[in-house]
Amino acid sequence: MADIIIVGAGPAGASAALFTAKAGKQTIVIDSDQSVTKRAWVENHYGVAEISGPDLIRLGKEQASKFGAQLVQGKVTSIVKEDGVFRVSTDEASYEAKHVILATGFLTDLAEAAGLQTKPGTEPRVKTVFDVDAAGQTNVEGIWAAGTAAGVSVHTIITAGDGAKVAINVVSALNGERYVDHDVLKG
Fold first, then answer.
1. 67-80: per-residue pLDDT in tens?
2. 128-130 and 118-120: which strand pairing?
3. Residues with Cβ < 8 Å from 117, sequence gap 6 or more?
4. 97-114 pLDDT tens trace
5. CB 3.0-4.6 Å disulfide test: which of 84, 97, 124, 131 passes with 117?
6. What is the pLDDT at residue 85?
7. What SS3 state is found at 187?
8. Bridging pattern class, strands 27-31 and 143-145
9. Does residue 36 carry a pLDDT above 90?
10. Confidence band of 187 (pLDDT split at 50, 70, 90)
11. pLDDT band for position 45 (50/70/90)?
């Protein structure tokens, strides 16, 4: 059983995976390869002069993998909570974890079957988002949402930051105390 399953490997999901895996949490990322970022050209992402959306996604996945995140190709079909454990199923397999982070971009089709509350989106073309609190927690304890699916701006820098924020909150919940990840220059 993993500590965390992240659904989606766009900027929010890969950023969340980077932080959770780097924190030593067993992280599985399930990605359907449907990120809207795949069609983007990005010139407003801090630290990057310009980059194609596909390259940004590839780099995010590589960073998460570097710290031990397991990347799985597939489309999640259901999320079921039994005895405090989440079973996340795809057409081909199922995985178990203590927490789930939904970083599904424009897609909120998992909401109804998983018992998740939604609300209208405020971004152009984003009709529905998961209803989350300031930490990213949904109404189902242990299921979190980050990025556009959680109602933040569709800009990659903002969704990536939201993924990191939610990941820190999940790691903190798992640890029972506030988690902070600061690296220092090597000397």
1. 999 999 999 999 99
2. antiparallel
3. 111, 130, 131, 138, 139
4. 999 999 999 999 999 889
5. 131
6. 97
7. coil
8. unpaired
9. no
10. confident
11. confident
Centre a 10 Å sphere on the Cβ of residue 111 and count the other Cβ atoms it contains: 23
> Of how many residues is the chain composed?
187
What is d(CA 127, CA 108) in angstroms, rounded to the nearest whole number?
9
Instruction: Calculate mean pLDDT across residues 45-53.
Output: 91
Strands (E), 8-125: 27-31, 41-42, 51-52, 70-73, 76-82, 85-90, 94-102, 118-120
Pair of tokens at residue 157: 């820098």
From the list 11, 18, 19, the residue with the least C-alpha distance to 35 is 11
* DSSP state letter for 69: P
Residue 80 is inside which H or E element, if any? strand 76-82
- Tell me how far apart the alpha carbons of residues 17 and 15 are, in angstroms, rounded to a whole number: 5
Distances (CA, A) of 167 to 27, 72, 144: 11, 19, 9
3-state secondary structure string across 109-158: CCHHHHCCCEEECCCCCCCEEECCCCCCECCCCCEEECHHHHCCCCCHHH
